[in-house]
Design a protein that fits this description.
single chain; alpha/beta; Aspartate Aminotransferase, domain 2; Aspartate Aminotransferase, domain 1; 2 domains; seven-stranded mixed beta sheet; four-stranded antiparallel beta sheet; 15 helices; about 40% helix; about 15% strand; globular; binds D-serine
């Protein structure tokens, strides 16, 4: 068959874009070559509905081995009794978990999307806000920190069956113990969605949700640096049954219910090539090298936040505990939309983001979000951060000056030459 040079030329273009630019999208990272190789390998051909040892297709003995490895390695990373590695994404993981524990119309409580939450935590435009009855908590206007008092009063007022914690644009650690306390009081489950900080939690650099939350979901491609996908986890399966029984009156574990909610509840055949790549990534996370990486991520983020503050930028909550920061650009007289575009001209990739109590729409926004997981994978340490902050500031302060933007882009491309990405790809 003739090679599809059209598509492969475009893929090559994307490789060059990734190599030349500074990647600051907080939800992105660069996987290892072996993670990509597994994702692009022959397991892509296999149908394997079901779970290891109990499939609905023949010929699954080999993919059973990689799926079992992925499960075992994930359990080892976080000290789990249960893990499901089949969700195709974080949204799929949350959908399955909600299907497992909720009935349509049940009340749920999550951090408002406009305050840093996530679409799947009850947004009106998402299945979670259409099928269930969403209620929200926010952050305190003055501090940018989660408003735990509001969370507690919302929980007492609406008696949700599920309380979400976790966010996509929140730079501080979370008090899982406090959330569990009110959940016990109102009879709710707690789901921690750790898609963003999972890699830091894996190495003990942030509070662990596992001792406090009934269920934990994550993506695998952000700070965990694996292939694109999702997982569902529980530290203690048995403790979470809450008296759930099957039709014969036997006590059913949540693990059974969740497995059924992933397949056949919300998905068909699992992506066994991606699951193999998850196994590879989880193996990498178990190494000391990844511990060094995770610590570097946290340190780079703190240095970057301090450098922005020194230049008069307003970081929501004043700083960061994890890998990201959210900047309110209103005192710099530029919208998030314009900032994203301008930085794009300088080969710096980031995304516009609403800030708490934003007066602009989600299309325009007053904020921009930066994360350092990807640049840390490229090999950047504290000493490289001032160049990046200076380049961003120069671009934003000269948003309509094409000459300055072109010069900044040249400097960025030159700077990035020292951080070689996928040299094996030529
Ligand atoms: N909303 C994505 C992000 O944080 O970029 C994650 O789903």
């Amino acid at each position: 068959m003739q090679r599809d040079t059209l598509v492969f030329d475009i893929i090559r273009e994307e490789l060059i874009r990734q190599r030349r630019g500074i990647e600051l999208i907080a939800s992105e990272n660069f996987t290892s070559l072996q993670v990509m190789q597994a994702t692009g390998g022959v397991m892509a051909n296999k149908y394997a509905e079901g779970y290891p040892g109990r499939r609905y297709y023949g010929g699954c003995e080999i993919v059973d081995k990689t799926e079992t490895l992925a499960i075992d390695r994930l359990k080892e990373i976080f000290g789990l009794e249960y893990a499901n590695v089949q969700p195709h994404s974080g949204a799929q993981a949350n959908a399955a978990l909600m299907l497992a524990i909720l009935q349509p119309g049940d009340a749920i409580l999550g951090l408002d999307l406009s305050m840093g939450g996530h679409l799947t935590h009850g947004s009106a435009v998402n299945f979670s806000g259409k099928i269930y009855s969403p209620h929200f908590y926010g952050v305190v206007k003055e501090t940018g920190l989660i408003d735990y008092e509001m969370l507690e009063s919302q929980a007492r007022a609406h008696k949700p069956k599920l309380i979400f914690c976790g966010a996509s644009a929140y730079s501080r650690d979370i008090d899982y113990a406090r959330i569990r306390k009110v959940s016990d009081e109102v009879g709710a489950f707690v789901l921690a969605d750790i898609a963003h900080p999972a890699g830091l939690i894996a190495k003990g650099l942030l509070s662990s949700p596992f001792n406090h939350c009934h269920f934990v979901t994550s993506t695998t491609h952000k700070t965990l640096r694996g292939p694109r996908g999702g997982v569902i986890m529980m530290a203690k399966d048995g403790e979470n049954t809450l008296g759930l029984k099957d039709m014969k009156g036997n006590l059913r574990l949540w693990s059974n219910v969740i497995d059924m909610a992933v397949f056949p509840g919300t998905q068909g055949g699992p992506l066994e090539h991606v699951i193999a790549a998850k196994a590879v990534a989880f193996g990498e996370i178990l190494t000391d090298e990844f511990t060094v990486y995770a610590k570097q991520v946290q340190s780079n983020a703190q240095v970057m936040a301090a450098a922005f503050v020194a230049k008069g930028y307003e970081i929501i909550s004043g700083g960061t505990d994890n890998h990201l920061m959210l900047i309110d650009l209103r005192n710099k007289n530029i919208s998030g939309k314009k900032a994203e575009q301008v930085l794009g001209h300088a080969d710096i990739t980031a995304n516009k983001n609403m800030v708490p109590y934003d007066d602009k729409s989600a299309f325009v926004t007053s904020g921009i979000r930066f994360g350092v997981a990807a640049i840390t994978t490229r090999g950047m340490t504290e000493g490289h951060i001032p160049f990046i902050v200076e380049a961003i500031d120069t671009a934003l302060m000269n948003a309509d000056n094409e000459t300055v933007l072109a010069n900044t882009k040249k400097e960025v491309n030159k700077f990035m030459e020292q951080f070689v990405l996928y040299p094996e790809l030529g």
